[in-house]
Amino acid sequence: MKRKMKAFVCRGPKQFSLEDVEIGEPEIGEVKLKVLYAGICGSDLSIVHGRNPFASYPLIPGHEFVGEVVESKDASFRVGQLAAVMPVVGCGECESCHLGNVNRCRKVKLYGVHMNGGFAEYVLVKAKNLIPF
Ligand SMILES: [Zn+2]
Ligand SMILES: [Zn+2]
Fold first, then answer.
1. Strand locations in the chain, DSSP E?
2. 1 falls in which pLDDT band (50, 70, 90)?
């Protein structure tokens, strides 16, 4: 049986509810982060109201969050470590990405905007997007 978690799911403009969602398993290079805190940003409100053109529904919003690693498929993180999430994910292949300017990548994706984010009990996050503390 697949394990489930509570998550704030936005299915479209002004369509949101707390749902039971499959947790999923981290791929190589990812960790499963147990969310400890998540901030509510103004752009989260625009996603909920359908005014963010980048939001892809259905979506678990939340791009400002910290948590504890509960499963790791990356050698640089171990279970129990605390980390903050840098939510911007570049394609890794373009000039901007190679220069370290991931925010300028034309194929940029954000946790909580293009991909599921932190308004959930757990999030699968790429280890390179984690900042340990
Ligand atoms: Zn924000
Ligand atoms: Zn890129």
1. 4-12, 15-22, 30-38, 65-72, 82-85, 88-89, 109-110, 122-126, 130-132
2. low
